[in-house]
UniProtKB/TrEMBL annotation:
This is Nucleotidyltransferase-like protein. It comes from Kordia periserrulae. It comes from the Bacteria. GO terms for molecular function: nucleotidyltransferase activity. Residues 5-133 form the Nucleotidyl transferase domain. Keywords: Nucleotidyltransferase, Transferase.
Length: 229
């Protein structure tokens, strides 16, 4: 089973101004809770061994909230890229699967399914979880052969793109790549060594929030799904 998880929550959220003028993107209100709360609540309830987050802009406020909610580790990555922590924190020594999420994902996390997919691919250094593209939401389109990713592109359209959900082994990545700060650069190194994989397409409802319009749309979608259930 997955025992460790991390939420990337250090982003400035400039595309969500003025909502992020006084608070971090992760702390924006979403359906009477915090945006990060959608994923964080699921992680806490799953009884993981460790839950970590990265913080940056308005990090003290976010860290205080996260600790109260049950987060074990806070990594201050202010001014750093989204993959900096992978090479420069204690997590680099972790030789186990680590579930990595973004704070702006609104999704039901199927821990068992994700882990089973990871095992079926022989526990690679990194596995991205793709979804079918959603109109208005950008993503890295995935080209692959038998699960092994051969190319990521923002312009060459395919039936799937990255969801922002991935499962990786930090120690394996540190052994096979050079330290970089951006995940796209991590993935490119892994592709060159044929070590980046994609799971089957995730079928549960998924939404990523980068603008206020997307935030309002996600709130409506979330409420509709709750009413259906």
């Amino acid at each position: 089973m997955i025992k460790h998880a991390l939420i990337l929550a250090a982003g400035r959220g400039l595309r969500m101004m003025p909502l992020t003028s006084t608070t971090s993107k992760a702390m924006i209100q979403f359906n009477n809770a915090m945006l990060i709360g959608n994923s964080l609540k699921q992680l806490v309830q799953s009884d993981l061994k460790t839950i970590s987050i990265t913080v940056g802009y308005k990090g003290a406020e976010l860290a205080e909230y996260a600790i109260k909610e049950g987060v074990h580790n806070i990594f201050n990555t202010n001014g750093k890229g989204n993959a900096w922590w992978l090479y420069h924190t204690l997590l680099k020594q972790l030789d186990e699967p680590l579930l990595v999420l973004t704070c702006d994902n609104i999704v039901e996390i199927d821990f068992d399914w994700i882990f089973q997919q990871y095992q079926q691919l022989n526990s690679p250094a990194c596995m991205l979880v793709p979804v079918q593209p959603v109109e208005g939401i950008e993503g890295d389109f995935i080209q692959h052969h038998n699960g092994k990713i051969t190319k990521l592109s923002r312009t060459e359209i395919t039936p799937i793109y990255g969801s922002g959900i991935q499962i990786l082994n930090p120690k394996k990545i540190n052994k096979t790549t050079n330290a970089v700060e951006n995940f796209y650069e991590v993935w490119q190194q892994l592709i060159a060594k044929e070590l980046l994989y994609a799971s089957e397409t995730y079928t549960k409802p998924w939404f990523s929030i980068n603008t206020e319009v997307q935030l309002r749309s996600a709130e409506k979608l979330y409420k509709a799904l709750k009413n259906e259930s």
